[in-house]
Amino acid sequence: MRLKYVVEDTDRHGTVRLYYRRHGQKVRLRGPLGSPEFLTDYRRAAEGPKAPKQRSSSPGSVVPRSVKWLCVQYYKSSMFRELDPRTQKVRRSILERFCENKGDGDKPFALLLPRHIRARRDALADRPEAANSMVKALRQLYRFGVTYDLADANPAKDVEFLRSNPEGFHSWTIEEIETYEKKHPVGTTARLALALALYTGQRRSDLVLLGKQHLRGGWLTFTQQKGKGRNPVRLEIPVVPELQRIIAATTTGDMTFLVNGYGRSYTNAGFGNRFRKWCDEAGLPHCSVHGLRKAAAARLAELGCSEFEIMAITGHQTSKEVTRYTKAASQKVRAEAALTKMGGERK
């Protein structure tokens, strides 16, 4: 039997080995020559090595011109990098969840239409804030695409927001504040957290960073964390006597007023979780730390402060949000003033 490209190689022990040799390829063949095993190996060697199976999308790969690809380009851009770290984290998380749902991230971003986004929005109808956050993130993603000539249109711009709770976070009442204070007396970190939030009107991202280094002549001087990279807001807020009394009576950290049981500063998320437990312990499951920011603004409105005076405390750049915070309180003040005038006329 004569077959092409078959060679024999005899080693020093006299053993004969069979090989298929062609174009630099050398493949060992099972013997003996002409056996079924030999013929099977010969056919395989003659067919050549099989090309590796190509996978459409391996884990971690990005399909060119897909939604996920557009996200990657967005993350590299200055439009994304100029956002503050927390906003970056939240927006990236929203976009990644969008891409992971039903493989939408591998689909061409140019084919995403408003009706597709509405369908995804309506699937979150039981969580309107989450649905609206998704639409906002997609608007910014495609705004980047249009600005950088990667996309022709912004499909998310034509998608309407769902109606959410117009009141937002629950604003603490005087009775709820008193209930919390009875459960957490002066000297505890829980009480200090309440006082800082109530007497400064700041977000939790600022509360966890406030410390002795921000105290200057009876004033708290600091820059708010939200928008710090793009539009920083620097505030100077007087420390009222009640807040000063509670700070002096509480064990604080070297760099932050609020510290956990190990003497370490809280992270933003860690403080939110801890405050949630403090509220639950006081029987206030519907209250939150952000609700104290609203309560502070409402209390200032009840005391007759103008919107600009309140903005000087909360750090808001426009009166729109302050108006929403203080709507009920402002109505109460105006009603009292109106009826006082009416009573004076009748008298």
From TrEMBL:
Keywords: DNA integration, DNA recombination, DNA-binding. InterPro entries: DNA_brk_join_enz, Integrase-like_cat_sf, Integrase_catalytic, Integrase_recombinase_N, Phage_Integrase. SUPFAM superfamilies: DNA breaking-rejoining enzymes (SSF56349). Residues 164-338 form the Tyr recombinase domain. It holds the Pfam family Phage_integrase. One of its GO terms (molecular function) is DNA binding. Signal peptide: none annotated. GO terms for biological process: DNA integration; DNA recombination. This is Site-specific recombinase XerD. It comes from Vannielia litorea.
